[in-house]
Amino acid sequence: MRANSLIELDRDHLIHPVISWKGHEARGATVLQSAKGATLTDAEGHTLLDGFSGLWCVNVGYGHESIVEAAAEQMRRLPYATGYFHFSSEPAIRLAARLAELAPGDLDHVYFTLGGSDAVDSAVRFIRYYHNVTGRPAKKHMIALERGYHGSSTIGAGLTAIPAFHDGFDAPTPLQHHIPSPYPYRNPAGDTDEAVIAASVAALKAKVGELGSENVAAFFAEPVQGSGGVIVPPDGWLKAMREAARELDILFVADEVITGFGRTGPLFGVEHDGVVPDLMTVAKGLTSGYSPMGAVLMSDRIYRAIADGAPAAKPIGHGFTYSAHPVSAAVGLEVLRLYTEGGILENGRRAGARFAAGLRRLADHPLVGDVRVRGLLAGIELVTDKARRTKPAPDLGISGHLARFGYRNGLVFRAFADDIVGFAPPLCCTDAEIDLLLARFEQTLNDVLDV
Ligand code: PMP
To answer: Which SUPFAM superfamilies does this entry report, sorted A to Z (predicted)?
Structure first.
């Protein structure tokens, strides 16, 4: 089918996530046709270097035949198995066991979902259940970070603190609260590690104090904030927040949907500070986007408390038709093998160091205010006055120009509305691809400057 007729059908029938529907009607879709490694090809034959791994998910890169084979083989043998009625399937069992082995500490129990939003939603349901069966039913309030992203489900969108996910959707709920982001570049008390950590710990303590610890269930945080503008907290921040949560008697949930599976260097983002959360949510890199799947990893302590505390004769009423889908699980197993035995994690670390060095060289560019990198996850904050850290005025339309010039220069990245650029290249990138990505980005910045 010709690209033009596809674009018309798209405009008439396909509702897209997280864009202006009217804006999309006017612009039309960019139809992607195929991909290999880190390169996308659109329906008109243009090639694009994917600096964003799809939506921060295709960590292993495109076109791995061994993943296709694992999915096809599982589809032939057993394309579906429910987890209801005590049924199970071999790939789901093996993937749960492998995750338990690879995850930090006693995160030994795994609940599979279809993606990140329902992983967050499942974590919220399990936390409520846990506090109810352990005799603390008042513990219902949940605290997350400003600029945090925790999905688009009815509950997750309220934990998220990005205005577009709240406006018009009656979110957040009265049980959801936010404290300031650990945002060194714009921390009112200064950008030293100590100042940023102290501000976050004080804010969490103050919020829990205000609500009463007996009423607070949990604190949710991404090890590096992704959709809020790739905000990298200082070393030691995760550890300090984990300790504060323990002291305050609330659960600590690490949302590793973006940071999991090598994105920031180690397999999980919390490893950066050697932290073991009570619960961890994962998705994206779990299957590298080849098939939808997410998961909640739960500590042994919480699992036992729920298993032993729940009424023995009653089901724990939480489940999806596609929980622990065997095809996604088979994909996940092969993707994990590529991370741990296929050299992808090592390559990602090497590529990440090269990418970070290249981005830091761009710090002198007149538009670049801040460069934040951990592994292959990066945010570049654009300003119009470097000394004053002045954000570009909205009527300059910088993020629109960035996206347009980026595409023209054969590069895909995320241009956030507040003029922060996000990068999350596939972990399989070669040195040449990293260099090309940096050159195309520099060209794009220069094009924007010339407008
Ligand atoms: N949590 C985080 C940290 C995320 O980045 C995302 C997705 N970008 C989600 C949850 C939601 O995941 P999904 O889009 O798979 O529902």
So the answer is: PLP-dependent transferases
Beta bridge partners of 282: 295
Q: Cα(68) to centroid of ligand 1, in Å? A: 24
Q: Which atom of ligand 1 has the smallest separation from the CA of 118?
A: 16
Q: What is the mean pLDDT of residues 198-223?
A: 98
Residue-level pLDDT at 313: 85
pLDDT of residue 4: 79
Residue % of the chain over a pLDDT of 90 = 96
Whether the complex's predicted ipTM surpasses the cut of 0.90? yes
- Rounded CA-CA distance 302/308 in Å is 10
Task: Inform me whether the pLDDT recorded for 1 exceeds 60.
Answer: no
The stretch 55-82 carries a mean pLDDT of 98
> Of 227, 242, 299, which Cα lies nearest the Cα of 273?
242
Give the span between the Cα atoms of 411 and 425, in whole angstroms: 11
CB 297 less than 6 A from any atom of ligand 1: no
What confidence score (pLDDT) does residue 3 get? 65
Q: At how many degrees (to 10) do helices 431-449 and 398-408 cross?
A: 130
Rama region for 256: left / alpha / beta (φ>0; ψ in -120 to 50; rest): alpha
Atom of ligand 1 nearest to the CA of 284: 15
Q: Could you tell me what percentage of the chain is helix, strand and coil, using 3-state DSSP and rounding each to the nearest 5? A: 45, 15, 40
Is the separation of the CB atoms in 156 and 121 below 8 Å? yes
pTM of the predicted protein model:
0.98
pLDDT of residue 418: 85
Q: Which residues of 367-390 are buried (b: 16+ CB within 10 A; e: fewer)?
A: bbbbbbbbbbbbbbbbbbeeeeee
d(CA 161, ligand 1 centre) in Å:
13
57 CA → ligand 1 middle, Å: 10
- CB burial string 405-441: b at 16+ within 10 A, e below: bbbebbbbbbbbeebbbbbbbbbbbeeebbebbbebb
Average pLDDT over residues 422-439: 98
Question: How confident is the model over 91-127, as pLDDT tens digits?
Answer: 999 999 999 999 999 999 999 999 999 999 999 999 9
Q: Is the CB of 298 under 6 A from ligand 1?
A: no
Does pLDDT of 387 surpass 90? yes
What residues pair up with 294 in beta bridges, in sequence order?
113
Amino acid at 119: A
Tokens of 37: 């490694």
Tokens linked to 224:
């590096």
**Does the beta carbon of 144 sit less than 6 angstroms from any atom of ligand 1?**
no
